[in-house]
Amino acid sequence: MDIRKVFGGNARRFRLALGLSQEAVAERMGVDRAFISSMERGLQNATLLTIWQIAQALEVRPADLLDEKASKIRS
Amino acid sequence: MDIRKVFGGNARRFRLALGLSQEAVAERMGVDRAFISSMERGLQNATLLTIWQIAQALEVRPADLLDEKASKIRS
């Protein structure tokens, strides 16, 4: 279990559930699209403050982004 | 809501529930006690890999460490 992949997979799933593009999420967070793309692929070792920021952008709780079960079943 | 304080408060609560000292958790993680102390006080902007490491050391799921409700009610 790579927590970066769990986090990225959940972020992607929540983004798609909201019908948002990577660009739209990037704009909400004030980062560029490449960062969102790389994060969703599990390539970013995000910090707590970034986790909080993306949870706000995706309208979920920070803990939801680390949920291993959700990541396995639904992504 | 400062996610660093939620995280630190939960980490402290889980550590005490296990009856472990900060030293013991630091040893399990291969870090020094000052890092655990500062993390529990919400002063560390921990990364995903550190969150995973401390979840292992405290025998909880990474998502449990970001649970806002648990942090408010029980810490």
Largest sheet of chain A: none
First-to-last CA distance of chain A: 14 Å
How many strands in all of chain A? 0
Q: Which pair of chains forms the biggest interface, and how many residues does each contribute?
A: A-B, 20 and 20 residues
Structural class of chain A: mainly alpha
Which range does the strand content of chain A fall in?
under 5%
| Annotated CATH topology of chain A | 434 Repressor (Amino-terminal Domain)
Radius of gyration of chain A over all CA atoms, rounded: 11 Å
Low-confidence stretches of chain A: none
Q: Secondary-structure element sequence of chain A?
A: HHHHH
The residue fraction in helices of chain A comes out at 55-70%
Number of domains of chain A: 1
Using the alpha-carbon principal axes, give the shape of chain A: globular
What would you call the quaternary organization?
Answer: homodimer
- In CATH, the homologous superfamily of chain A goes by the name lambda repressor-like DNA-binding domains
- What's the CATH C level of chain A? Mainly Alpha
Mean pLDDT of chain A: 94
Organism (chains A, B): Bradyrhizobium betae
GO molecular function, one term (chains A, B): DNA-binding transcription factor activity
InterPro entries (chains A, B): Cro/C1-type_HTH, Lambda_DNA-bd_dom_sf, TransReg_Diox_bact_type
Protein name (chains A, B): Transcriptional regulator
SSE order and pairing:
The structure is a homodimer of 75-residue chains.
Chain A: H1 3-17, H2 22-29, H3 33-40, H4 48-58, H5 68-74
Any descriptors?
homodimer, 75 residues, mainly alpha, 434 Repressor (Amino-terminal Domain), 5 helices, globular, Transcriptional regulator (chains A, B), TransReg_Diox_bact_type (chains A, B)
